[in-house]
Design a protein that fits this description.
Order of helices and strands of chain A: EEHEEEHHHH
CATH class of the largest domain in chain A: Alpha Beta
Number of domains of chain B: 3
CATH superfamily of the largest domain in chain A: Beta-grasp domain
Structural class of chain B: alpha+beta
Distance between the termini of chain B: 48 Å
Distance between the termini of chain A: 44 Å
CATH topology of the largest domain in chain B: Aldehyde Oxidoreductase, domain 4
Shape of chain A: globular
Oligomer: heterodimer
CATH architecture of the largest domain in chain A: Roll
Radius of gyration of chain A: 15 Å
Strand order of the largest sheet of chain B: 11-12-9-20-17-18-19
Radius of gyration of chain B: 27 Å
Shape of chain B: globular
Strand order of the largest sheet of chain A: 4-3-5
Number of helices of chain A: 5
CATH superfamily of the largest domain in chain B: Aldehyde oxidase/xanthine dehydrogenase, molybdopterin binding domain
Number of strands of chain A: 5
CATH topology of the largest domain in chain A: Ubiquitin-like (UB roll)
CATH class of the largest domain in chain B: Alpha Beta
């Protein structure tokens, strides 16, 4: 029987019973029902599973659940506060920056991570940062625009 | 259950295959009120749905499209005023859920927010052959309009009866019927209350022309957008019915391999695991995907493999194995190509190739299957819910009425989700386990066991007169397909043939099908002819074109692009390509920068003009057009499936390169809104001129003519 691991996700604590090397993504999705983080490749190549660990964007399909226990985890489900969307979510909505939207959670989580360390990124910095996130519908220009708008919103509202 | 295709020929237009619907109209109608409650319902049987959409000449030269003749749509006005529209089409990211709701709201004169669409559920929606071929907008939009118009007439009729006045003096607007003479009005909700009124669609109910649309034609944001940005929307892989098991399938080591030895005793000994072997199908279901995978690992299986060709020899193989003569279905001839060539000032022979590529939808194939009382329900991301239902019924020896297929809004498809593979696998495992089972393909499975856009060879012989007039056009497509094969240019002497070749890799539909291959060959060839005639590539095209809609997109895109452009730096090049298909028109211009030292090719800018009749939702359309342009970049520059001995050699995003942020140039989409023309689909045509426009720009930059897709998987070494 594996040792219980305690995860802190979106401000709540969850004890989970999984082998230590199980990727965090499967624990989130299959055990905890947090299915907003998507399986796209399981190889760290598409970014659909991106979550924040200690505030930094990480591919949850590549992080063993044991390594995720040390720091607070934020998933797409944890961004909305009291019915108010995170500025990045709002900007994606405003820009219509999705088509099938399967990549959207990962795009938003990566972008939230970017704006935490670089509140006013240039277009080139956004493109560089999102290079590891795949969008197959070809919505890239709107995604870049949404991140720029989110940065603007956050600066204007001092968030 | 095996994926072995044997010596099958690809259907030239696979997506047009459709079985005759098993029509249960009366039953459906009765169920309808049971499910939705009382109200007013209108059912459509639109016999002329197909004929009404013939807008582009010659697009049916090779295939006799067989959509069911009695496609139907239906609509319900509830006692609370809620409006529900029903269609068998699936939402796969192309935004029909929004566009179709707009159409209903527009015609029924109700707020957009009051309309809900029920899509792609074989128990609730009308039969539909599938979501492909850019058919949703041209077929379903007018039907829903007619249905909505008829519902409006019904509501007016109810009010007229209530007030004992002539219906003609009443006005329907803002979800109510008003009598302007008396000032009385009744809300639709009030009129529907207590009724179970149903009507078949009157044949010629007039619908609102695009010039008078108020809700359609507007850039309304995607319905349920908030559910997507919060992660709340549940795609098929996100479903978790209580007690569900996770299923995994043991794949053969190579295509066509057969089981020769098999021992699953160790796997079956694992508690909680169900192992199934049925012919060459082997799978396991377990409480977690990991445990199911471990169970597969405990199975001892030996396979007999068969030798197979590789991507290195595919093109010579295709030529050698094609029928020498194209059959009559695939031949079109006018004048005499031989005479046209004899009389030409310049002649050009060239051969073009296109590689196999993968759809790589970000949501992999997935299904959740559930058996109860001998009936099967499957949730799966498919473009063909009814065909999936029929296949499930056939495979499990059930009547169609015992199978229900439901398609949650799906993480894209691009023509890649026509088959029912994951649905069959999940259903087989679920039957054995007696529990719900979910199967989600891994990325490697998705790249290997789905199907591909077929490879092809295209040979073109042509001639032009001294003034640049085309005199001869001889076009032969081997294997890749017939979409977009007809030249839009005026040529007195022409022959166009499609030569089928038995399948090598499992192949099928892909966004635009062979239109990309055929346009790549034709538009690259046209560019080479312009060069031979020493004419500007745009002028050369316009000289040989009479179609006003195609000329219009060329001229609109040229204006925005700033054609003709002067080169301002080394390695800069500009290119153009155009075409029409499925009732819509496209012209694409590209600017490239080629680093002559490294051979690196960068797309700097693309401008595309697109015209698909009256625009239903300009915002959704822009997303589709820009999206197709970016997706088209991949197949143009670097996407290719590598294979050898029945194995895919690059089944990962790390080795199969798809367009990423850095690959995306500055993009402008110019949308021409023709309110005088019926709305055509827009999911496919915007992709097909991208590759030739880029190739022609590379030629302009370097003088190197690239006749193979992808063009520069490793940069332009020879430049």
């Amino acid at each position: 029987m594996p040792k219980p691991i305690e995860l802190e996700i979106n401000g709540k604590r969850y004890p989970v019973n999984y082998p230590a090397d199980t990727p965090l993504l499967y624990v989130l999705r299959d055990e905890l029902g947090l299915t907003g983080s998507k399986y796209g490749c399981g190889e760290g190549q598409c970014g659909a599973c991106t979550v924040l660990i200690g505030g930094a964007p990480r591919r949850s399909c590549q992080i063993p659940v044991s390594a995720a226990a040390a720091k607070p985890i934020t998933t797409i489900e944890g961004l909305e506060k009291d019915g108010r969307l995170n500025p990045v979510q709002q900007a994606f909505l405003d820009a219509g920056a999705f088509q099938c939207a399967y990549c959207t959670s990962g795009m938003i989580m990566s972008s939230v991570g970017l704006l935490q360390t670089n509140p006013n990124p240039s277009q080139a910095e956004i493109i560089q940062f999102l290079q590891g996130n795949v969008c197959r519908c070809g919505t890239h220009p709107r995604i870049v625009e949404a991140v720029r708008q989110a940065a603007k919103m956050m600066q204007e509202h001092g968030r | 259950m095996s994926n072995v295709e044997g010596k099958l020929f690809m259907e030239p237009e696979r997506y047009e295959f459709s079985a005759a619907p098993f029509h249960q109209f009366e039953l459906a109608r009765r169920d309808f009120f049971k499910i939705l409650g009382a109200g007013i319902a209108v059912f459509a049987i639109a016999k002329d749905a197909l004929a009404a959409q013939e807008t582009a000449p010659g697009q049916r030269a090779f295939h006799n499209e067989e959509l069911p003749k009695d496609i139907n749509a239906w609509l319900h006005v509830g006692e609370d005023g809620s409006i529900t529209g029903f269609t068998g089409k699936a939402e796969i990211g192309q935004n029909i859920r929004t566009a179709l709701a707009q159409t209903i709201a527009d015609e029924l004169r109700v707020p957009f927010e009051s309309v809900r669409m029920v899509t792609a559920d074989t128990a609730l929606t009308p039969f539909d052959a599938g979501t492909f071929g850019s058919r949703t907008t041209p077929t379903i939009t007018p039907q829903l309009r007619r249905v909505a118009a008829a519902a409006r007439d019904l509501l007016v009729g109810v009010a007229a009866k209530e007030w004992n006045v002539a219906p003609a003096r009443l006005v329907a607007a803002d979800a109510k019927v008003t009598d302007p003479a008396s000032g009385r009005s009744l809300k639709y909700a009030e009129l529907a209350r207590g009724k179970t009124l149903a009507q078949n669609l009157p044949a010629e109910d007039p619908i609102t022309p695009a010039t008078q649309w108020t809700i359609a034609g507007k850039a309304i944001p995607k319905v349920d957008g908030r559910a997507f940005v919060t992660g709340r929307h549940q795609y098929t892989p996100d479903l978790r019915p209580a007690g569900m098991l996770y299923g995994r399938v043991l794949r053969p080591p190579s295509f066509g391999a057969t089981l020769t030895a098999y021992d699953d005793s160790a796997a079956k000994a694992i508690p909680g695991v169900f192992v199934v072997r049925d012919g060459d199908f082997v799978g396991a279901a377990a409480p977690s995907a990991d445990e199911a995978q471990s169970a597969l690992g405990a199975i001892h299986a030996q396979w007999k493999e068969v030798p197979q060709i590789s991507n290195k020899e595919i093109f010579s193989y295709l030529k050698q194995n094609a029928a020498a003569e194209a059959d009559d279905r695939f031949r079109k001839q006018k004048g005499s190509v031989e005479e046209g060539l004899a009389g030409a000032t310049h002649r050009l022979d060239a051969s073009y190739t296109v590689a196999y590529i993968a759809h790589a939808p970000l949501e992999p194939r997935a299904a959740v299957a559930q058996w109860a009382d001998g009936k099967l329900t499957v949730w799966t991301g498919t473009q063909r819910p009814f065909a999936n239902r029929d296949e499930l019924a056939e495979v499990f020896h059930l009547p169609e009425s015992s199978v229900r297929v439901i398609v949650p809004d799906t993480g894209s498809a691009y023509g890649g989700k026509h088959t029912s593979d994951a649905a069959l696998e999940a259903a087989r495992l679920a039957r054995a386990a007696g529990r719900s089972v979910k199967v989600v393909w891994t990325r490697e499975e998705e790249f290997t066991w789905a199907y591909f856009r077929p490879a092809g060879v295209i040979e073109v012989k042509s001639g032009i007169a001294s003034d640049g007039t085309l005199t001869a056009w001889d076009f032969h497509n081997y294997h890749s397909g017939t979409s977009g094969i007809d030249t839009p240019y005026v040529v007195a002497n022409q022959r166009t043939e499609y030569h089928p070749v038995p399948l090598i890799l499992r192949s099928g539909s892909y966004r635009g099908l062979a239109a990309t291959a055929n346009h790549f060959a034709r538009e690259t060839h046209m560019d080479a002819l312009a060069s031979a005639a020493k004419m500007d590539p745009l002028d050369f095209r316009l000289k040989n074109l009479s179609d006003p809609r195609l000329r219009a997109v060329l001229e609109a895109a040229a204006k925005t692009f700033g054609w003709p452009r002067k080169k301002t730096q080394a390695g800069q090049g500009f290119g153009v390509a155009c075409g029409y298909e499925k009732g819509s028109y496209v012209a694409t211009f590209a600017e490239v920068a080629v680093d002559k030292t490294s051979g690196a090719v960068r797309i700097v800018r693309m401008v595309e003009a697109f015209e698909c009749g009256a625009i239903v939702n300009p915002d959704g359309l822009r997303n589709q057009v820009v999206g197709a342009m970016i997706q088209g970049l991949g197949g143009a520059l670097f996407e290719a499936i590598e294979f050898e001995n029945g194995r895919i050699k690059n089944p990962h995003f790390a080795s199969y390169r798809v367009p990423r942020f850095r690959d995306v140039p500055e993009i402008e989409a110019v949308l021409l809104d023709r309110k005088d023309l019926p709305s055509a689909g827009a999911g496919e045509t915007p992709i097909m001129a991208v590759a030739p426009a880029i190739g022609n720009a590379i030629f302009d930059a370097t003088g190197v003519r690239l006749n193979h897709l992808p063009m520069v998987p490793n940069g332009l070494r020879s430049a």
